[in-house]
Amino acid sequence: MQIGPREIVTPFRPIPLDVPEGMKPNEFFNSTENLNDLVNNNGLLLNPENLLLYRKALGHSNLFDTSIIYNTSKIILNPLGRPVRRTQVPDHVKHVWNRMNQILIDYMVEKYPDPSEHLILAGEASLDATWPLTSPGVPSIRMLHNHFIVFDKKTMSDAPLADSDNPNLTDGGQHSLFQAYMRDVYSEFFDTLHLEILKPVSIGSSKIELTGYPQGLPSWEIQGGVKALKDIKFWQEYDEILKGFIDFYRTFFTQVSSRNAPIPKDSYFPEQIERKLLFNNDFLKTAKKVRDNCITDVTYANAIRWQPAFKQLIYRNDEGKLIVTISQNSIGNAITELLGVVVKRVPDAQAYEKDEPALIAQLLEVRQRLIEADLGDGIETKYWPRD
């Protein structure tokens, strides 16, 4: 068996939405019209906290694929003012968000119990406009949303190897800035976090054997598995991982921007930053390397993402353990590529409609569990009823 990232083909039914003349696609997909399509054509459940569960019209997998979006489009009209990461979500909303996550992950593990047959993942990526604003796809929909996806491992095994130079696969290993020059200090900084449920694991045990991903990223086992997801302590630790990443990223690029800069304002772990980062020669040497490149290479400088951009996810490894990992985002924003799964979406309504009944049946089943847990009310579309 060849080990490496796989490129799978996922058919979809073309979305009957026309981008108005003179408007860029990324501008349109951030519009009220597109969000109306999410609700009216693909919406499954909505609650008073404005958390919308919906079917992915352009999905990653037609086996099981759904998302929850924090739909602030009508309460925060400025797209650049909306929450785009968990740390920006109000506590009462995050409480509901976490419970929804727990039920959905539990459902996927229950329906797909064999780790040798199915890859399960759930997580989110930063939606900040951290690319240059002239780049395509920025700022996209710019509202925090996460993914719940199941892939068939036989389909993955039968799929061709993906191009290893695909820019969306540059999250770890030799391609990653953090991993290439600062692997030790990156891991040591995370080791300072006080975690009880999340246990650090070796790179080998965190990898999916079929793809060899994730590559070189800090990872933690969720001790207790799906049962631990019912403990609010787990979700607090999940946030600690994100806060640690944000502190590391901000501190590094603050040093890239300004030599010998102070600790960034509003840091979550200022003592650890001072002790583990600002007195570490590898950390500061790498910042100098990037700074020097920015000064002399305009193309390199233009590609820098100065604000924290991340992918954070929960997935099941080959041993059946639930693992948490986090990575700086690459040029792409597809969270599946963190595990070495490149999705090639192709328009094919007939092929999609063969998978649609089974997919929707599962989405409605998990929706009912959310309704019973008082996490929202069903939405009626032309594809399914309200109840």
What is the strand and helix layout of this fold?
Elements: E1 6-12, H1 25-28, H2 32-40, E2 43-46, E3 51-55, E4 64-70, H3 91-111, E5 118-125, E6 145-152, H4 153-158, H5 177-181, H6 183-191, E7 198-201, H7 203-206, E8 219-222, H8 232-257, H9 270-277, H10 281-296, H11 298-303, E9 310-316, E10 322-328, E11 341-347, H12 349-372, E12 377-378
Parallel strand pairs: 1-11
Antiparallel strand pairs: 2-3, 2-12, 3-4, 4-6, 5-6, 5-9, 7-8, 8-10, 9-10
Helix pairs in contact: 8-10
Describe the structure.
The structure is a single chain. This protein is α+β, with helices and mostly antiparallel strands and 387 residues long. It has one domain (6-378). It is 36% helix and 18% strand. The strands form two sheets. Strands 7-8-10-9-5-6-4-3-2-12 form a ten-stranded antiparallel β-sheet. The protein has a two-stranded parallel sheet with strand order 1-11. Strand 9 (310-316) and strand 10 form a beta hairpin. Helix 8 packs across helix 10 (281-296).
